Amino acid sequence: MDLTEILWWSAGMFLLGILAGAAGMYRGQRKERSRELKKISNTVQRMTSGKELPDFSDCEETMDSKIRHQLLRLQEILVSQKQDAQKERKELQELISEIAHQMRTPLTNLKNYLDFLSEEIEKKGTEPELSYLKAIQSSEEKIYFLTEHFIRISRLEHGLIQIRKEERDLLKTLRNALGQILDQAEKKEIRFEFELPEKMHVMHDANWLGEAIFNLLDNAVKYSPQNGKIKISLQENEMFTTFSIRDYGIGIEPEEKNLIFQRFYRGKRVTDEEGFGIGLYLARKILFLHEGLLTVKRCEPGVEMKLSLPRQ
């Protein structure tokens, strides 16, 4: 082997050594990057599951350490913002509750004075005076209704009201709720169709569940057209007794299935119908305290509200 061949052979071996070293370094870096990405993935998974992230050592200078430090800081910011939002929400609820309680006595006095005034105006008043009086009474009734519902919601949210469940006939609770809505339904000439057994005994608090049923019936009548109909049915399976109210009214948009249960939310299709957006919120709270469910199904036209109580 002459000198030229030796030089070429040496250069080739040197090049092979460089390539082998580079390949080894690449494999090592790839494994290291894979480990770092796995650590980052585990950190993100822990963060998204709501678990607290451990404090990482300040000595580490790797990429995954820097990213995990940033995620830790991000989690601290998000937790702080969540706590602030919860505090503000609680303070707002307490403020609304306090205002509602403070308004109760003045509203009662206002109602009494309006009743006295009504007696005088009906005897001696003119048509315009009667019209003005009715407008004032209507406004007072709306404020009183809203105030009472704020107080109910506040008591439920703060656990000040206990649900006292007893085995009662659910149909009797339904009839009591229907009795409160019949005048409103008759004015719109709405007919009811029933699919009900003769009796259905279920563990429930008749007063509170009756209020939830009334709220559902009130919405069904309110958002039904003139000469509309409402179907009411009661069914059982192994787990639940389910009470359904199906109307053929204005219905809701697809994205509103969960929004309608939020406090003060009013559907996009609501136009002239009066309301405050608290009936469904209160109804779902009551069902939750009964360990039950309140769900909605879009039917086009209308909706079907399903109230499910656990069988015991």
Automatic annotation (TrEMBL):
Its main location: membrane. It is found in: Membrane. InterPro entries: BphY/WalK/GraS-like, HATPase_C_sf, HATPase_dom, His_kinase_dom, HisK_dim/P_dom, HisK_dim/P_sf, Sig_transdc_His_kin-like_C. One of its GO terms (molecular function) is phosphorelay sensor kinase activity. Residues 71-105 form a coiled coil. Pfam families: HATPase_c, HisKA. Its EC number is 2.7.13.3. The chain crosses the membrane at residues 6-26. GO terms for biological process: cellular response to phosphate starvation. PROSITE patterns: HIS_KIN. It is an enzyme of class 2 (transferase). It catalyses: ATP + protein L-histidine = ADP + protein N-phospho-L-histidine. Keywords: Coiled coil, Kinase, Membrane, Phosphoprotein, Transferase, Transmembrane, Transmembrane helix, Two-component regulatory system. This is histidine kinase.
